[in-house]
Write a structure and sequence with these properties.
Blueprint: H1 10-18, H2 26-35, E1 42-44, E2 47-49, H3 52-62, H4 69-77
Antiparallel strand pairs: 1-2
Length: 103
């Protein structure tokens, strides 16, 4: 019986995420380890190792909810989502205040 290794190196963790069709570089995982944005990991000496279940949980948190562009287009067409139009005066020239000395 062949069992999968319990812990993956950082490079193997990146490959594991990529095997799910998601782009992730080893260097990105390294950056995420310093910023706290990445998956849970464990220290083994000076090495960071990852568990598959932690990677799977992290992938789930990073995925947005499923959407369809055709559903969004239908909602905009029937008025459920109003068309966004910039407010008048929102440009840089129009926001400048006119003072009495300018008149």
């Amino acid at each position: 019986m062949i069992t999968a290794r319990a812990f993956l190196s950082r490079a193997e963790a990146a490959e594991y995420v990529q095997s799910h069709g998601l782009p992730l570089a080893r260097g990105t995982l390294q950056k995420y380890a310093t910023t706290g944005e990445g998956p849970r990991y464990h220290k083994f000496g000076q090495r960071c190792v990852y568990r598959r279940e932690d990677l799977d949980a992290w992938i789930t948190t990073k995925l947005g909810r499923p959407v369809t562009s055709s559903g969004n287009a239908e909602a905009a067409a029937d008025g459920r989502y109003p068309k966004v139009v910039p407010e008048r005066g929102s440009g840089p020239r129009e926001r400048a205040e006119v003072t009495a000395s300018d008149r």
